[in-house]
TrEMBL record:
Residues 162-232 form the PEP-utilising enzyme mobile domain. This is Phosphoenolpyruvate-protein phosphotransferase. GO terms for biological process: phosphoenolpyruvate-dependent sugar phosphotransferase system. NCBIfam families: PTS_I_fam.
Amino acid sequence: MPQMEIFQGRAVASGIAIGKICVYSAEGEGDVPHYSIDSDSVAFEKQRAGNAILRARDVMLAMVERASGSLEPHLAEIFHMHYAVLEEKWVLESVEAYIDEHLVNAEHAVVDVFQTFIDKYSSQIGHFADFAQDLNDIRDRILECFEDSSSSGFACPTGASSPVIIAAHALVPSLVLNVNPENVLAFVSMEGGVTTHATILARSLGVPIIFGIPVARYLHCGDQVIVDGSLGRVFVNPSTDVSSYYEEKARSLAAVRIKCESFANEPIITPSGRDLSLKINISFPEELVLAENVPHQGIGLLRTEFMMFHRDSPPSEHEIASQLRDVMNQVECDIDGNHRPVTVRTLDISSDKLPPYMELPHQINPDLGIRGARAVEYFPEIYHAQFKAFWRVNEPGRFRVLFPMVSDLADLMVFRSALDRAAAELESEGVEFHRQMTQGIMIETPSAALMIDQLLEYVDFVNIGSNDLNQYTLASTRGDAATEGRYHIFHPSIAKLIEMVARAGQSNSKEVCLCGEISYFEEFYPLILALGIESVSISVSKLKDIKCYLHGLDVMDEKGVESMLRKFYCLSLKDEVDGFFKAFYSNTLSA
């Protein structure tokens, strides 16, 4: 029997899938012909390129018609966009120019031209980087339409008679559209993003999705595989024990989800007797469609960086205000007709996420340099426009501003002074706006957690940013293999700081909302609730599963809370913390 292999990737959509795998290889990943030509062959190669692009348009038009008849309008629009790109003059003109300049065959020119644009978009962030995956897909459609292409579209002998787990180097929209939804158990790929068009399509099928798995190197058609969409793990040729465990887990999850449907709108009670507020994190407006039909209490964290990138100059206050209104108008009222709040974080820059028009000086340690309040002082005009836009859209109970990377009162005063200057300028311009704005801060450093009682005197709420809090508390870089192997993401020191902030919030009647990766894992929630957290803001992709898991938890009494914290605070090593959470997760599923 082949030896079991385990691969760790990024969980995008949770669930359990057990079955055989089918590996999809796109034309662009195969042996595309690359050869030089003489000047006499230029016209012929240009003609071949033009014919392939015309055929690709016909293929894409058929996809548009198919998508329009089988998908929701916002999903079908993805294929309209692909068709529109193929109709752009620059596609053929760029390929023809490349053939002229480099004297290469048409397929070679298509690959190199598209790669230039793919590299350009991949180097950016968010949905601009996600567009690179769309360009990959469009390129492959063209390559498949050359007269001597060996591709015959998506065909899977493994999945001819039974459902399969689809694996590919990159998840692209055409792949998702071309598979039979009834024959898909899960999607696994090396490349992909949470907000890409392909991911949005794949999520609509309700199956597990994992990215970051080296498909081409280790997976083969027909391999027996288990996909754990909650933990982001793929088991190839699983052992008998692992198979038995996941078969039971899959049955338990199926039963829990059926039960969840009956109380999707029921409140989740915390140990303090209050309702848990479940909000969503939004990086791009397109993500809001993923939250449809899943009840939530508003946006707990709207990142504003998407407004700043893919442009040569910063947006004006009017542009920012317009985009904010669009987001706010997409957040539905609750059942009583009250607006759900939208919490908007001010621009949060760092050395690795900086628009091209914002240049930082040399810094000895960029991670500890110009961030938060220091960025407001270094780029006053950019923040001034953003703050004026905040006042323009401000509505009591609906809009909330969130200041990032506040370490002490001096940082907070910088933000508040800048906000006051923006208000004063609007008043001098005769602009009418609501003068009272709900203000909050991110607790992302040990200093802020230790100073929480003082800081709470000046703000209406706080969000705990567990990712940066973890990094600055443990002096470890996120994503570094050496430190991740040593420290648990929910280290006891992090728990103590979170509890400190949560208890202070309760004492001062101020909301404390937990954000970050800690809140993405179901098994952490017994401890999260025991720490006194009564509000959580999570990724849209995790919302439904977290709600489902929480409805299966028993409400702990005061003795249960004390017992859990006493046990957890005695732990030191990562293996001990792992065992603590696995025990709670297994007990909940088997309940």
